[in-house]
Records
---
Amino acid sequence: MSKKRVLFKFTLLAILGALGVVLMSYIQFPYPFAPFLIIEISDFVIILTFLLFGLKEAVIVTLVKTLGDLMFRGPVGPYGVGQITAFIASMTYCLGMWAVSKLVRKEKLGFKILGYTSIVIIVTTVMTIANYFVLTPIFLGQFSFLDMTNDSLAQMTGINSYLLSIIALYVPFNLMKGTMVVAVAATAGMAILKIYQKKLGDNHEHKEFKEPTEGTDL
């Protein structure tokens, strides 16, 4: 790789990391049905990084985004559970993109939709499980889901069951947030990829959801 390509790559990675920090720290709004849940779309930066460069770079941007938010806002929630949650979600996007890239190698629209839908489902599943066992207990001041009682979330959900409350809170929340994230990545990503390839004079053909060497086309 030429010095020009290396410099441009690291410059773009720095921009993506900074964008992730800004979106995560300052561009957010509460989920209408549970105001303590925050909707922000910084994870679309993780998807773009994966599509441009690959898994390793997406993990690096995940670390930059999470640590940058921790530096600017300080720990969110007990033990920084807000940043822990964001890190788990971003890593799930990284690994979800990598896994789907191994299975979905077609560039037809139907396969693209299948790939992105699979990623949203993966993230929703992982985050719901993580909230059940670890994240929500920490947020509510407990150290284990075994310490949670049936009425721990009843005042928030009106459901007198910890398991059902978790499902009712996090499944629709993560489905909606995940759909927003992949929608922004799929639309904005096309323009960014075109600019990147034009800047580097990259004439290679890349396929979406195929593990990239120097980027993956949307």
---
Amino acid sequence: AAAALREQGAYVRVHDREESENARAMAPSLDYAQSAEKACESAAVVLHLTEWRQYRDLDPAALGSIVRRRRLVDGRNALPARRWQEAGWTVRGLGLGRAAS
């Protein structure tokens, strides 16, 4: 998904918790950040594309202070949408419109 967005002209910064060389080899045009928070700095939209616990446990209020816009697309519908909405985020779950709470 991230590489496809990049191909369409979007600037995409990603975090790979395992910092996989395979990921970098498959999508070298992406900007790889050292942390999820760094990946989200000044983001117009945050894409959540995995079910890894470290991302599910992010604090939406703290993250909201570093993004440009509080917009979240949850590609796995794995995040507690109500918690993110209460922190001022617009949340969309792929295939669901608005993510379930």
---
Amino acid sequence: MTKQQRDATRSALLAYGRSPVNRRWEKAIEDSMAYYKEADPIRADLLQLRYLQHRKEADVLEQLHIGRTTYQKAELDLLSTIAVYAAQNGAFN
């Protein structure tokens, strides 16, 4: 994932639920949440807490009982997954 794609993904996540987001991004975020609810509840919780509820990183670490390294890895995985769904939906065009 390029820096531009990562930045676009973070921007879409931060805007989700606060302001109108491109429907392609909304679908990518929703598809990612559905995927992680099935495949990896920790990442689903991280997505929910950090990006959809807009909680601070320290709060997420405490709530999920994970360390910073685990958080960073999980966050990169989330961003990559959302970016893949976004690309499939044509959000980067």
---
Amino acid sequence: IDATVFRHVLDAAGAPIAQLDGPPAAGDAPTGDWRRGDVIVDHVTIPLPAGAAFAEHVEFGLYTPVDGARLPATGADGRLPNDAVRIRIPVTSGS
């Protein structure tokens, strides 16, 4: 079963303000075809709702669409919280 990518935009408190779920690379790179060492580029635009607070993080990971179970996500120190990779959005002056 091919996995689905979840992408969550979070505010400063860690609350989700927007999300986009779907197949990797708009369906052009199903996870069943992935091999060790593959690099998958997944460009997406996640619209923020009107009046949304500042987005501070994006988190993403994979889940199986049949049961919604997240696939384990691990880092150098072991399993990641919520089985998700979290990236801080850099803030530049004027943003």
